[in-house]
UniProtKB/TrEMBL annotation:
It comes from Aspergillus tanneri. This is FAD dependent oxidoreductase domain-containing protein. One of its GO terms (molecular function) is D-amino-acid oxidase activity. Coiled coil: none annotated. D-dopa binds at residue 336. Keywords: FAD, Flavoprotein, Oxidoreductase. PROSITE patterns: DAO (PS00677). The keyword Calcium does not apply. It comes from the Eukaryota. One of its GO terms (cellular component) is cytoplasm. Pfam families: DAO (PF01266). FAD binds at residue 198.
Length: 365
């Protein structure tokens, strides 16, 4: 009789849940997800619920980032078409670029998205360049395509449901050291392997202590108004670390408008002045967001929110590690592209889990 691979996944954000979901499709894996925060929680430490979330590829052609996004698109597309309960829908998308933003912090972040001839043009459906004679003053190029927007309040519990169907057990716990997680498997036996999907918490988690991680504070306003499309632009004239984007979440999730990209800023409370700028910029970019002639008083606000993107210098960490005798596969540090690269990154983590388990089995022979 073959024995199960006992695996503990630490973290229940989109990266942890997606990795667990893919691993749980293999019946030889027995999986426990252990996390401080779970879907349904709204906490500054827990980034996933606050995300837009959408598919606006920001990876530059030829990079791992672009590869992970490319691998994720077919899965998201299939979920829209076959799993209405996942809370994802197609959206017409418009992306504007201003050359003057290229050297700014946000312009650098958006660089892969706003290129005139972007690498993702053959990934997303219906990609078209906006003719130059239709561009507003100050806009140097723009494109339209079909993308997706995810209602995180529906999608994260959907992932939990898929994991539960496959026998995954979910538990709450807080660890000071990643090696402690090996003792948290629901079987009571020590886990063969731990997958670290703790996002920004990996900065201070014992055994990991990743100084390359930084919080990039994102502030949003969620409204009932519908802009009729998912719209973004490469930067703002207000501040280098502020953004303009809007997207309507599937299944009545409201429209998320943002935003900010504030490095090493941990403040969990919404800044009312920033909120006003966010709303004004959204209406200026997409006047149909409100009734004709109305300003921000025409927005019907659901709530204000703040999340901390787990941005890592050099990109996400997806690799095998050995910490205090425990085999660990890391999958964290996805910054602002956790959802749109979630399946590509999780597929890579799954391969590394198989490799680490194979090493263990070879060592036993």
């Amino acid at each position: 009789m073959s024995t199960k691979n006992n695996i503990v996944i630490v973290g229940a954000g989109v990266s942890g849940l997606t990795t667990a979901y893919l691993l749980s499709k293999d019946a030889s894996n027995s999986i426990t997800i252990v996390s401080k925060h779970m879907p349904g929680d709204y906490d500054i430490e827990y980034c996933s619920p606050w995300a837009g979330a959408n598919y606006l590829p920001t990876g530059k052609a030829g990079t791992n980032h672009a590869k992970w996004e490319r691998e994720t698109w077919p899965v998201l597309k299939e979920l829209v078409e076959t799993q209405p309960d996942a809370g994802i829908h197609f959206q017409d998308t418009v992306v504007y670029n201003r050359q003057k933003d290229r050297m700014s912090q946000t312009g650098a972040w958006f660089a892969g998205l706003t290129e005139k001839d972007p690498g993702y043009k053959d990934v997303v459906p219906n990609f078209q360049k906006v003719p130059d004679d239709q561009l507003s003053p100050g806009v140097d190029n723009a494109s339209t395509f079909t993308s997706v927007c995810i209602n995180t309040a529906v999608y994260l519990p959907w992932l939990v449901g898929q994991c539960r169907k496959n026998g995954v057990v979910l538990k709450r716990a807080v660890f000071k050291h990643i090696a402690e997680a090996a003792n948290a498997h629901h079987s009571g036996k020590k886990a063969d392997l731990v997958v670290n999907c703790t996002g920004l918490s990996s900065k201070k988690l014992g055994g990991v202590n990743d100084d390359k991680l930084h919080p990039y504070r994102g502030q949003v306003v969620v409204v009932r108004n519908d802009p009729g499309a998912m719209v973004s632009i490469s930067g703002t004239d207000d501040a280098e670390d502020e953004l303009v984007y809007m997207m309507t979440r599937a299944a009545g999730g409201g429209t998320v408008i943002g935003g900010s990209y504030q490095k090493d800023q941990w403040d969990p409370l919404p800044d009312p002045n920033l909120a006003v700028r966010i709303m004004k910029r959204a209406i200026a970019l997409r006047p149909q967001l409100v009734s004709k002639g109305r300003g921000i008083e025409g927005l019907d606000i659901i709530r204000h929110g703040v999340g901390l993107r787990p941005v890592r210098d050099g990109g996400p960490r997806i690799e095998i590690d050995k910490i205090d005798g425990v085999s660990v596969v890391h999958n964290y540090g996805h910054g602002g592209f956790g959802y749109q690269a979630s399946y590509g990154c999780a597929m890579e983590a799954v391969k590394l889990v198989a490799e680490a388990l194979q090493r263990r089995d070879s060592a036993k022979l």
